[in-house]
Structure formats: structure tokens, C-alpha cells
Design a protein that fits this description.
Mean pLDDT: 97
Shape: globular
Strand content: 25-35%
Number of helices: 12
Low-confidence stretches: none
CATH class of the largest domain: Alpha Beta
CATH topology of the largest domain: UDP-n-acetylglucosamine1-carboxyvinyl-transferase, Chain
Strand order of the largest sheet: 22-23-1-24
Helix content: 25-40%
Radius of gyration: 21 Å
Number of domains: 2
């Protein structure tokens, strides 16, 4: 599918969909909990459906209700699935579920799509092995397919967390192991996502002693997850595209459903845009954007790697130079987002340079072009935002990948006046 994007003026109010990160954690914790958990307003996207499928193949009963899903937990007992577990494009599901699979007595095989099979999980494999599980890459290259066997016993593990998902996987699984665990990190990217996991654990009665800098964790084994009843909060990663669209088109928008007290790292996009001169205020109605001139800034994106493509678009419309820094893990996402963002925005006339760990973006006059989203949902949506403020018509290829996390992206943009057409591939 393609998005055909025309220059547009936006105006109005929008309800931001709920969080993928929260929904997947809710599913996996509910799957392991003692009793029935109720997930209110879960995100329904390709990634969350993949996680639901994994849980169901592990024997978890998930029932649809008027306001969400009722999940009957396994009380920490992980059976051996009958088939290979295919996570599709969901790296969050893959890595977080790997730790839980290590609690079982049998073998679990994980695979995913082509992008998933190119993303390394070797640090997590090594940590699971240190904790008494058996974890291998079938091709010996650190990438899926993975074979995971248990049961995990606990113990000491040390790892370099280029992705925070490795840490969240261990934090979700080690409390259910028989023995205690001590986890030490040599590196931690995307720290706020670990905060999301810790908050879920605390709310479900699991105790984890974490160092203030989140570089060490002490976890008592033999714990259990309590069932919960919780509404999923709005997704700041999805809101990023509306915030950035408001900034580059000078739109007056109200984004509803966002909680600035939530642990999500991408809420930092609000102060980042404010630093660049965007007029954004927090009101009782929601997060409100106003028209205003933009200026370049130096921004640390280590905690917000998903925002890189959209913030690069904003940099093109900001006076001077914008530097997006300290985000090397962006190279190991669905695509090498540093390289693909630079390459595709250059097709639109952007003056942009790659760094090893980020991008340098100069104010540019963007023009419509045919650009490739490379099957990366966040790149597709960022290029669409660029097309709203560029001159001429922009065609974004592989637009169907937006459905991985945000299937209603185009319709919601259209309600605000965006000239985004969904078209079949030529």
C-alpha cells in the first residue's frame, strides 16, 4: 500500500490510541498472573495481536469484552507450545516472551518476519544462559529463530542492554524463577521503558530492588504476579507524529488521552519540541499545539529512539541546525533508522548527515517525492508528516506497515484535514 500525501493545513482534536508498550506488558503479565486480569482499552494493532497469539499458543485464555480483554493467567506455569511461535514484526513480543519461555521445562521456538530475523538478541541469549536456561540462535548469528529451554534457575547475569527490551525480559521472568537473581548492566539504552516494566511489576505485587541508575537489580525468586484490572494509557510514541505534524504545519491541534505522569519515554518529545520553539501547552482538554517558528537544537534521543525519524522531519523545518544525538540503538530497530531516515529525507531535498549515533539536520526546503518506508512503521509515518509540509505530492511506499502499531494513523490524520490518501501498490 502507498500513502499519497498532499500539502495540508491541519486543525482539530484527536484521541491518541493506547500504548503498544503497555498493552504487550499487560498481556504477558496477565498471562503469567494468578487469576483473571482485565486489560481495558488495549491497543489493537499487528504487534499486539502477535503478542496475543503468542499468549494463546501458550494456553492462555483471552476473551474479548466490551471494553477490552479478560486474560486468564497460568500462575507462572509455562507449558511447551505445540508449534513455533511467530511474533511477526513485534520485537517487543519476541524479547519479552523469550524470558518467560525460559521458565518452562520444554523447548520453545520463536521466529518472526524478515526484519525480526535480522535483529540481534545475543545479549539476551547470553543472560538467559547465565541464569540457568538454555537459549540458542538456530543459525548461530544471534538472530531469530531462537530456541529457548528451561527451567531458568536464577543466579547472576551481566549484559550490555543496547535494547531495553533485554532488561525488561529478565525483569518479567526472574521473579518467577525458583532462585534469586542479580542482574548487572554494562550499558542501558532506552531507560524509561525499563521504568514502565518496573511500574507494572510493582502494581502486580512483585518486588524488585533496583539501583537508582537502573544499572543493577536484585530480584527474589518464587514470587507471583497478582491479577489486575487496568486501563491502558495513551501512546506517546503515536502522539509524536501528531505533535510533529502540528509543529511543521503550524497547526492548532488538541491531543487527548495522554498522561504526562506516565513512564513512557516519548513524552519527552513535548519538551524537545518546546526547546525548538514549538508552542505546546498542557491543558485540561489535552496537549494543545499552536503555530510558531522553529529553531534548531541539540537533542539527546537515547531514551526516545522511536522519535528519531519524526524529529528529523521537524529539524528540516527549523531555522539553523538540529542534532539528534546519543541514539546508536536506532540502527538496530525495524531498519537502521539513522541510515533510512537520512536516505529518504534526502530524496525530498533534506540536507542531512549521518553520525554513528544520530543525525545532523539542516533547515531545508522539502519537496514531494516518491520515498520508501522500508516496511518500518515509524519511518512511514514520519515521511507522511514530512509530506504534509513539503511542496508538491509525496508518495510513501510500504505504508501498510503503519498498522504494526498505528492502524488508524491515516484516518485520524484525515479527520484533522490531512491530505493523505491510502492507495494500493501500483
Amino acid at each position: 500500500m502507498r500513502f499519497i500525501v498532499h500539502p495540508s493545513s491541519l486543525h482539530g482534536e484527536v484521541d491518541i490510541p493506547t500504548s503498544k508498550s503497555h498493552t504487550i506488558r499487560a498481556l504477558l503479565i496477565g498471562a503469567m498472573a494468578d487469576g483473571v486480569s482485565h486489560i481495558r482499552a488495549p491497543l489493537n494493532s499487528a504487534d499486539t495481536r502477535a503478542c496475543r497469539s503468542v499468549c494463546e499458543q501458550l494456553g492462555v485464555s483471552i476473551v474479548d469484552g466490551d471494553d477490552g480483554w479478560a486474560v486468564s493467567g497460568l500462575n507462572g506455569r509455562v507449558p511447551t507450545p505445540e508449534n513455533v511461535l511467530d511474533v511477526g514484526n513485534s520485537g517487543t513480543t519476541l524479547y519479552l516472551a523469550m524470558g518467560l519461555a525460559a521458565l518452562g521445562f520444554g523447548w520453545t521456538v520463536f521466529t518472526g518476519d524478515e526484519q525480526i530475523r535480522r535483529r540481534t538478541g545475543q545479549p539476551l541469549l547470553d543472560a538467559l544462559n547465565q541464569l540457568g536456561a538454555r537459549a540458542y540462535s538456530t543459525r548461530g548469528n544471534g538472530c531469530a529463530p531462537f530456541i529457548i529451554g528451561g527451567p531458568m534457575k536464577g543466579g547472576e547475569a551481566e549484559l550490555e542492554a543496547r535494547s531495553s527490551q533485554y532488561v525488561s525480559s529478565l525483569l518479567l521472568s526472574t521473579p518467577l524463577a525458583d532462585g534469586d537473581s542479580h542482574i548487572r548492566l554494562r550499558l542501558l539504552n532506552e531507560q524509561p521503558y525499563v521504568g514502565i516494566t518496573l511500574r507494572w511489576l510493582a502494581e502486580c505485587g512483585v518486588r524488585v530492588e533496583a539501583a537508582e541508575d537502573l544499572m543493577q537489580f536484585e530480584i527474589r525468586g518464587g514470587q507471583r504476579f497478582s491479577a489486575f484490572d487496568k486501563r491502558v494509557p495513551g501512546d506517546f510514541s503515536s502522539a509524536t507524529f501528531f505533535l510533529c505534524a502540528g509543529a511543521v504545519t503550524g497547526a492548532e491541534l488538541v491531543l487527548r488521552g495522554l498522561d504526562m505522569t506516565d513512564s513512557q519515554g516519548d513524552k519527552a518529545v513535548v519538551p524537545m519540541l518546546q526547546e525548538m520553539g514549538a508552542r505546546i501547552e498542557l491543558t485540561d482538554e489535552g496537549v494543545r499545539t499552536h503555530a510558531g517558528p522553529l529553531r534548531g537544537a541539540d537533542l539527546d534521543l537515547n531514551a526516545t529512539p522511536d522519535a528519531l525519524p519524526a524529529m528529523a522531519v521537524v529539524g528540516c523545518f527549523a531555522e539553523g541546525t538540529t542534532r539528534l544525538l546519543n541514539v546508536p540503538q536506532a540502527r538496530i530497530k525495524e531498519t537502521d533508522r539513522i541510515a533510512t531516515t537520512a536516505a529518504e529525507l534526502r530524496k525530498m531535498g533534506a540536507r542531512i548527515e549521518e553520525l554513528e549515533d544520530g543525525l545532523v539536520v539542516h533547515q531545508s526546503e522539502l519537496r514531494g517525492a516518491v520515498v520508501d518506508g522500508h516496511g518500518d512503521h515509524r519511518l512511514v509515518m514520519a515521511l507522511s508528516v514530512a509530506g504534509l509540509a513539503a511542496s508538491g505530492v509525496t508518495t510513501v511506499l510500504t505504508a501498510e506497515s503503519a498498522g504494526v502499531t498505528f492502524p488508524t494513523f491515516a484516518p485520524l490524520m484525515q479527520r484533522l484535514g490531512a491530505g493523505i490518501e491510502e492507495a494500493p501498490d501500483a
